[in-house]
Amino acid sequence: MSQIKTEDMEVENPTVEMEEDEIVQEIDVYLSQQLAQHLYLFQYPIRTHNFGKNTGPTQARIKPKSQIFELDIPLETNAPTYNREKGEELGLGVNDDPFKTILDEKMGTKQTKTSLMNKQTLSSSFVPAQTNYMVGAFRNGALYMSPVRGAVQFRPSLKYLDKIDEKIKAANKKVIDEENKEVQTEEVRAKAIQVQVRNADSNQTAALRKSTLVQLQRQAEEEPWIRLQYFDEESNEAYYIYEKMFSGKKEPLVCKTTAGEFIDRISAFNTQL
């Protein structure tokens, strides 16, 4: 028995003995590697929880080496909340039609029907892994686990604005070139120079970091897109992939650490977090 003394009273605090939890059920756990290189966790921070049900993407694509995804989500242009005026304005960014100028009207080029922005493209950003994620499924009293290769978050892409800007610049250049066929003009753009004082090591480190980021960005831009097919969760194709989560051949795993080493590794990992 332990005691706690105060000026006015003495309180006895009995020592509580903890009992071991009862084992309710033992479950066999199997590790399946059939989908290890293909499973990704998709996150939609600004979408509702039922996103994708019956309104999935019309197109999907991936850059495997860069692990970049894009999804084209259809927009309901007939919905009462759809702004058709804005949709026509932004529709130029979702097609390859050139921006019409006054020169096209003089040359008799017919104005094509204005396209509506009928889709929204979601682009992925890679989420740095804080731990190893896995997907599990129960069958016949056993738990089958499949590793997740990575987690990505999807947000709206604004590439259509860049495309509109490029078309407008191209149209303006076309007009200027036509009006100044005999006059060559040269535009001088002033560039602001920012002076910073750094030591040699920091300059080399910054230059190396910048060159690495530029190289990675260039590689990602140059890597071609690969078209993907999207299947709803209730489709036969989705069921076929789901079946691959279950191991066909069962082999026992060999433990390479003792219980003490395993606990030490977990403790070190929690300390880093």
From TrEMBL:
InterPro entries membership: RNA_pol_III_Rpc5
Alphabetical keyword list: Coiled coil
Per the database entry, which stretches of residues form a coiled coil?
A: 161-196
Claim: Coiled coil is one of the keywords in the record: yes
Pfam families xref list: RPC5
Supply the name of the protein. Answer: DNA-directed RNA polymerase III subunit RPC5
Tell me what organism the protein belongs to.
Basidiobolus ranarum
